[in-house]
Amino acid sequence: TEGLQRSLFKTLMILEITFAGIYLAFTRGLFIIYLVSIGFKVDYISTIVLASTVAATIVSIFLYKFPGFIVRKVKAKYLIFHAAERILWIPMVLSPNPILITLSYTGVSVASTLVGSFTNLAIYGSLDEMGVRDLMSKRNAVFNVTSILGFAAAMGLMAFLPPEEKFLIIFLTGSSVGLLSTVMVWLVKLGHLEGAEIPSGAEKPEQVFSTSSFLSAILISGNLLGLFWIPYLMDVLKAPDYMAVGINLATTISSIFASIL
Fold first, then answer.
1. Fewest C-beta in 10 Å: which of 2, 24, 29, 93?
2. Which distant-in-sequence residues (6+ apart) come within 8 Å of 182 by Cβ?
3. Measured between alpha carbons, how far is 89 from 108 in angstroms, rounded to an integer?
4. How many CB atoms lie within 10 A of CB 39?
5. Which of 108, 119, 61 is closest to 219 using CA atoms?
């Protein structure tokens, strides 16, 4: 029945963000800490962040100007970009080559922007207004919880795993967990979105693409903050890397409570 299909859709999308929260804590949440640990300085880290941000912004503009891109072969594109975002973390931790890391992280940012738009299209195009609000609130709540759990787990792993292996283990684990969220996307039925108007369940087209711009803004602000204090903490104050993760955890918790209040 239609009601059962909506319930299944919501469940799969909640599971998708559940795995995504842990994946992001294990990868993006540790990215700058990883770069500092392998000897990258602020100037080169800034270059990596700038390149990825510019690329993501260009993609956001492209999607807004050519919205038809996301309503053709929706499921295939969604899956490809969803999986690519998670897989592209692996080359970065296998090799400290600056060019490889820059290209891979730029690819992650581009894929993340596209995934944000496809996710919004799926939600707005599959549910009515009340359903969208219900799912969004549940996804936000679950993401907050799994982000905290992910950072807490990452902090523990950083403290106890062998120094020469910990980033490899954590990033591979994060990518693997992230791919579980891709499986949830694979299970979602999206055939009704083929050739759909933009968006079929929202009042304004901007609602589909707002996630991309919002994620870009979050990415910029988060990276700018970590860009300076993490190198200072680890290089100048000589604090252990797991302490930097602990501060990320505290920042995440405080941000969540601030948004609630």
1. 2
2. 79, 82, 83, 86
3. 7
4. 9
5. 108
